[in-house]
């Protein structure tokens, strides 16, 4: 039996030829598109993937944010304790220096001990974010100024009566300055507390707003974070 063969290529229908070319073209185009997609995805991954340095920086920033959030909580607690120590002393100095009383050496020694204890939390402060360091530094400055007011009161107890009024006036002005410094630090502490999501924390002294100290805003405690 003779072997069956197809028609010679020159006898193929033109439509068949076009169909074969279209199929080959589509197959080649599909392969090219697939390779292009794979290469594009690989290049995009390589470009978009953070390198080791960027990953390290992001990790450090994340750790710093956690550390600062914890420091803010601790500083708020410290500020409340120190305020409860300092506030009665500043109020006492105001009363003693404006009431015409002679300075009491025993009371002066008692206040000096209170101020020594109030200064202890700020003796070796940790390093934190700039805004937190500012708040902590302000509170420390207020305590130092209050300590000077107490020392001036103690000195007034040992000077002649003719010089006592001037010494007491210095003590009163230093106490007022301590309250003003504290109010600035308390305002900063309130702001970083809000920024960190803890809401408003009003760790202010009870002061006369006419004396120049800042006062808390009207926001409710714990809101705004």
Name the features.
5 helices
Structure description:
Helix 2 packs antiparallel against helix 3 (105-119) and helix 2 (52-98) packs antiparallel against helix 5 (161-195). This protein has helices at residues 14-48, 52-98, 105-119, 130-156, 161-195. The protein is built from 5 helices and no strands. The protein is mainly alpha-helical. Helices cover 71% and strands 0% of the residues. The longest helix is centred in the middle third of the chain and has 47 residues, at 52-98.
Question: Looking at the structure, what is the overall shape?
Answer: elongated
Radius of gyration: 38 Å
Number of strands: 0
Portion of residues within helices: over 70%
Report the sheet with the most strands, covering strand number, pairing sense and barrel closure: none
The secondary-structure element order is: HHHHH
Tell me the β content.
under 5%
**Structural class, from helix and strand content?**
mainly alpha
| Number of helices in the DSSP assignment | 5
Q: How far apart, in Å, are the first and last alpha carbons?
A: 95 Å
Mean pLDDT: 83
**Which ranges are low-confidence, i.e. pLDDT below 50, for 5 or more consecutive residues?**
none
Structure summary:
This protein is an all-alpha fold. The protein contains 5 helices and no strands. It is 71% helix and 0% strand.
Describe the protein's topology.
Blueprint: H1 14-48, H2 52-98, H3 105-119, H4 130-156, H5 161-195
Helix pairs in contact: 2-3, 2-4, 2-5, 3-4, 4-5
